[in-house]
Amino acid sequence: MATRKQPNILFIMSDDHAAKAIGCYGHGINSTPGLDRIAREGVRLNHCYVSNSICTPSRAAILTGTYNHVNGVMTLDDKIDNRLPNVAKHLRAGGYQTAMFGKWHMGEGKAHEPTGFDAWAVVPGQGDYFDPLFHEPAGPVVHKGYVTDVITDMCVDWLDARDRSRPFFLMCHHKAPHRSWEAHPKNRGLYTADVRLPDTFDDDYKNRARAAREAKMRIADDMTYLDLGLVQPEGGAEIGEPLLPGMNVRKLPKLSKLPGGFLIDKDTGERFAFASEAEYDRFKYQRYIKRYLRTVASIDESVGRLLDFLDKDGAARDTLVIYTSDQGFFLGEHGWYDKRFMYEESFQMPFLARFPAEIPPGGVVDAIASNVDFAPTFLDVAGLPVPSYMQGRSMRAVLKGQTPAGWPEIAYHRYWMHRDEYHNAYAHYGIRDRRYKLIYWYNQGFGLAGTQAGGEPPEWEFFDCEADPLELFNVHADPKYATEVARMTRLLETKMAEIGDEPAHAGARK
Ligand code: SGN
Ligand code: CA
Q1: 3-state helix, strand, coil in the chain (%, to 5)
Q2: Model pLDDT, residue 1
Q3: Angle at 234 (CA atoms; ends 232, 236), nearest 5 degrees
Q4: Nearest CA, atom 17, ligand 1
Q5: How far is the CA of 171 from the centre of ligand 1 (A)?
Q6: Per CATH, which fold does 8-183+290-404 belong to?
Q7: Separation CA 93–CA 487 (nearest Å)
Q8: ω into 177 cis (within 30 of 0)
Q9: Among 56, 200, 380, 500, which has the highest number of CB atoms less than 10 A from its own CB?
Q10: Could you give the 3-state DSSP secondary structure of residue 256?
Q11: Ligand 1 pocket: which of 14, 179, 227 to mutate (most atoms <8 Å of CB)?
Q12: In the β-sheet with 428-432, what is the strand arrangement from edge to edge?
């Protein structure tokens, strides 16, 4: 029997795209025909989780198949050491032509730029929405246009010019829908009807760890004029608190402090006035979610273009297409935007895959998966060995709906930054299985970059995600859950020992 040709791998990842903002996840807040096509012709995962809900670390986990204490990229301020092996290097050595276009965010310069790729062009840092600057092997280049289109064009052009006698591995990494949610002008008229307010928008953060109360990522308090496409008046402290000390990008003040008592749309000049703080907060939510969804519309269009290209090229059948995001995102749940937490909306990664040669259409998978599993999956699909340093497992059978015996029942998460300057999010670690979630908030920093020191007493949280899907009641101290708490604590400690991460909680079994 002839050995089968190595399949192609098209990995599409956006930045901060919550599963809730993808049609096929069923929340009904937007429609995404391009993305839904992947799920319809392939599979949707309901329990794919990020191992550290923040950009740079998640990307390092994806590229290396290792947890962040192993790859050394624990915080947003860390950079990848590009001398280390990564999945692109293995695929390239194994016969693949490889490319990476879009957001890299693991550092710039010789020691940190992409390695393992035949071609690459990446936006420095977060990148810009319009006329973005790219770093390329030959130097910096500005590409005119809207960033999502520019990245898609790069991918299509590279695919079109590729060597068709060899398989490809392409990473298409979008900048959108990352803050400050700037849509293509043609999509600015989308979503005129109001979006339903999440049930927990007015969360009072009772029955939860301190971290929830202290986080500065509230739509009501922590949005800037820029975030919401509003004109920021000239001036100083009287117009609002700086986003960061010394910065002239300012947060929207409370209604009572709003200069003139109204806001102005920066594109249309439309004026908005409010009868109450509650009405003002709801206005902010609507501005936010609509701006966010309009940037998602371009992502969806990009995915459609790439799928169409594969069709025309005749490569669709033998290409594994994956769509995911570097982490989830809060879309008003608990009153928040941003991510970083193990609460479901930011912990869950959307994950859609299509591979007609192998994956039956219309699959929905409830097995637990993690971003450290992606690299082993690529290698397995390519028929290449998974190196022993990788800590994830190949999801190849899982994607076909055939979860192997002994498949991990938990996903591990550790967010290392403590009280970052933007959002004051607290460091924590924990695990989730399909029903329960255990979180340990150690409430202190470890002197890492982008992290504040200082300590408060630690706290545990335990959620029954079936009885309490909105995660409003910490039942860690509830005797009814004592057996489950003990079981999950053991699983957490076993997992930490297995992956070589150091527990911070007292009495940890190592
Ligand atoms: C920027 C954002 C933050 C965001 C981080 C991390 N502020 O600093 O809100 O949490 O990026 O995002 S901004 O006003 O400068 O946009 S991540 O996607 O890189 O993890
Ligand atoms: Ca991100």
Answers
A1: 30, 20, 55
A2: 35
A3: 100
A4: 55
A5: 21
A6: Alkaline Phosphatase, subunit A (3.40.720)
A7: 43
A8: yes
A9: 56
A10: helix
A11: 179
A12: 411-415, 428-432, 436-441, 459-464
Residue tagged 């029903």 (tokens): 435
| pLDDT attached to residue 2 | 36
Ligand 1 atom 3, closest CA: 422
Q: Which atom of ligand 1 is nearest to the CA of 337?
A: 9
3-state DSSP call for residue 370? strand
**How many angstroms is it from 76 CA to the middle of ligand 1?**
9
For the CA atoms of 445, 325, 218, 260, what is the dihedral angle to 10 degrees?
A: 130
Closest ligand 1 atom to the C-alpha of 243?
14
CA dist 154 and 176 (Å) reads 16
Contact residues for 379 (Cβ-Cβ < 8 A; gap 6+) = 87, 90, 91, 94, 385, 386, 387, 394
Question: What integer pLDDT is reported at residue 4 of this predicted model?
Answer: 60
Where in the sequence of the chain do the CATH 3.30.1120.10 domains occur? Answer: 413-499
The token pair at 445 is 């920093």
Whether the upstream peptide bond of residue 180 has omega within 30° of 0, thus cis, is: yes
Which ligand lies nearest to the CA atom of residue 17 in the structure? 2
Instruction: Tell the CATH topology of 413-499.
Output: Arylsulfatase, C-terminal domain (3.30.1120)
CA separation for the pair 75, 57 (Å, rounded): 6
Kindly list the protein residues whose Cβ atom lies closer than 6 A to any atom of ligand 1.
Answer: 15-16, 54-55, 76, 105, 126, 178-180, 243, 338, 422-423
Using CA atoms, how far residue 64 sits from 67, 255, 325, 387, 459, in Å, is 8, 47, 16, 10, 31
Q: Looking at ligand 1, which residue's alpha carbon is closest to its atom 8? A: 422
> For residues 36 and 362, what is the distance between their CA atoms, to the nearest angstrom?
10
For CATH 3.40.720.10, list the domain ranges present in the chain.
Answer: 8-183+290-404
What is the distance between the alpha carbons of residues 430 and 460, in angstroms, rounded to a whole number? Answer: 9
Q: Burial letters for 198-224: b for 16+ Cβ neighbours within 10 Å, e otherwise? A: bebbebebeebbebbeebbbbbbebbb
Q: Does pTM surpass 0.85?
A: yes
